[in-house]
Amino acid sequence: MLASQLYKGTERQQPRYYDKKSGLDKQEYFKKLDESFTAYVGNLSIQTSEDSIMEFFSRAGHVKNLYMGQTLEGKPAGFCFIEYMNNQDARYAVQYLNQTKLEDRVIRVDLDIGYNPERRFGRGQQGIQIRDELRKTQDSGRLSLNQIQGSKQGIGYNNRGGHYNRNNNHRFYQNHNNYKNRGKSDNRGRYEDRNQNNKRKYRDYSSDQNARKQALRESSQDSN
């Protein structure tokens, strides 16, 4: 007897993922999953367009709907749901497109029980995905919590929600109003304060000058 025959049927199968937040028991969940027309796509680049996704997943069959995942701010969150016309096409997508590259990024494709509007957001903070929330390394194709919140712990990000361009050492900011915040340790904030003080002094000086001119005119009229 061949060794392969001895071990046939003894391989441990990968346990199927069960989403406890689906509101279904395991039997209902897996039944719905097996009959689903929908595929879940993960690890997308946030720069990948809907047109690129549609073209790529049309290889498996006719795409009925594409639902893009997003953050609470409405930015792409790097995942989506592809709804096909039938279960077989959804299975083809999983079989042939899982672990392939879309725009130089390896994507994950799995069967999904189906899209609903409540699932359009990631489950991490601010609507990003949990894996991005926990990630410690920089990934230019994904959002991070540091980009959303401007965390001081962000790699390559400052504490005001901006980021550094390492090619020219230029600083960009997501929220330019932060320059005007008082009490911030930012040079441009101090310059803003200084300019405001100078403008205020000039207005006071101009008011004094106008008052003096008015007084001179009135005194000259009285003398006449």
UniProtKB/TrEMBL annotation:
<feature type="domain" description="RRM">
    <location>
        <begin position="37"/>
        <end position="114"/>
    </location>
</feature>
<keyword id="KW-0539">Nucleus</keyword>
<feature type="region of interest" description="Disordered">
    <location>
        <begin position="139"/>
        <end position="224"/>
    </location>
</feature>
<protein>
    <recommendedName>
        <fullName>Nuclear cap-binding protein subunit 2</fullName>
    </recommendedName>
</protein>
<dbReference type="GO" id="GO:0005634">
    <property type="term" value="C:nucleus"/>
</dbReference>
<dbReference type="GO" id="GO:0045292">
    <property type="term" value="P:mRNA cis splicing, via spliceosome"/>
</dbReference>
<keyword id="KW-0694">RNA-binding</keyword>
<keyword id="KW-0508">mRNA splicing</keyword>
<dbReference type="InterPro" id="IPR027157">
    <property type="entry name" value="NCBP2"/>
</dbReference>
<comment type="similarity">
    <text>Belongs to the RRM NCBP2 family.</text>
</comment>
<dbReference type="Pfam" id="PF00076">
    <property type="entry name" value="RRM_1"/>
</dbReference>
<dbReference type="InterPro" id="IPR012677">
    <property type="entry name" value="Nucleotide-bd_a/b_plait_sf"/>
</dbReference>
<dbReference type="GO" id="GO:0000339">
    <property type="term" value="F:RNA cap binding"/>
</dbReference>
<feature type="compositionally biased region" description="Polar residues">
    <location>
        <begin position="140"/>
        <end position="152"/>
    </location>
</feature>
<dbReference type="GO" id="GO:0005846">
    <property type="term" value="C:nuclear cap binding complex"/>
</dbReference>
<dbReference type="InterPro" id="IPR035979">
    <property type="entry name" value="RBD_domain_sf"/>
</dbReference>
<feature type="compositionally biased region" description="Low complexity">
    <location>
        <begin position="156"/>
        <end position="178"/>
    </location>
</feature>
<keyword id="KW-0507">mRNA processing</keyword>
<feature type="compositionally biased region" description="Basic and acidic residues">
    <location>
        <begin position="215"/>
        <end position="224"/>
    </location>
</feature>
<dbReference type="InterPro" id="IPR000504">
    <property type="entry name" value="RRM_dom"/>
</dbReference>
<feature type="compositionally biased region" description="Basic and acidic residues">
    <location>
        <begin position="183"/>
        <end position="196"/>
    </location>
</feature>
